[in-house]
């Protein structure tokens, strides 16, 4: 991010400097130049190149920032699981319910409500079916163990 800020500052400084020089030349009338229109054309070409290069640089930086944000978002979802089909009741302690349900069906004995940084039901309650439970684990290894044991549990029961 510091490199991006430095590039923007450098572009701003270059732009300001070039525009100040160009404005001075226009105010002087540039009577010593052989052809004011050719000087104006060459200055415009240089300015155009500078602006296009700057815009390309900004576009590249934005693409990089977008990729980094996407990677961070993907990484943050690495500890999340969704659980479907767990019966719902009023005033339930969702974390305790999930911990006991998973410990009962899977071979994970160390799972406690403290294993989750977040655990809640998603959406609005409907009477016909239980809502999905979102779990975010504190430890990625615990999430991986649950995921692995889940696959073994379903392959044994089917």
Mean pLDDT: 79
Order of helices and strands: HHEHEEH
* Approximate helicity band: 55-70%
- Gap from first CA to last CA: 51 Å
Q: What structural class should be given to the helix and strand makeup?
A: mainly alpha
Q: What Rg do the Cα atoms give?
A: 31 Å
Instruction: Indicate how many domains the architecture comprises.
Output: 2
Main sheet overview: 3 strands, antiparallel
How much of the sequence lies in strands comes to: 5-15%
Strand arrangement across the biggest beta sheet: 1-3-2
Q: What would the principal axes of the Cα set say about the shape?
A: rod-shaped
Number of strands: 3
* Helical stretch tally: 4
Question: Which stretches are low in confidence, meaning pLDDT under 50 for 5 or more residues running?
Answer: none
Descriptive account of the structure:
- The chain has 158 residues and is mostly helical.
- The protein folds into 2 domains: 2-76; 84-157, no CATH class.
- It contains 4 helices and 3 strands, in the order ααβαββα.
- The chain has helices at 2-28, 36-76, 94-105, 140-157; strands spanning 80-83, 116-121, 133-137.
- Strands 1-3-2 form a 3-stranded antiparallel β-sheet.
- α1 (2-28) packs antiparallel against α2 (36-76).
- The longest helix has 41 residues, at 36-76.
- The two termini are 51 Å apart.
- The model has no long low-confidence stretch (mean pLDDT 79).
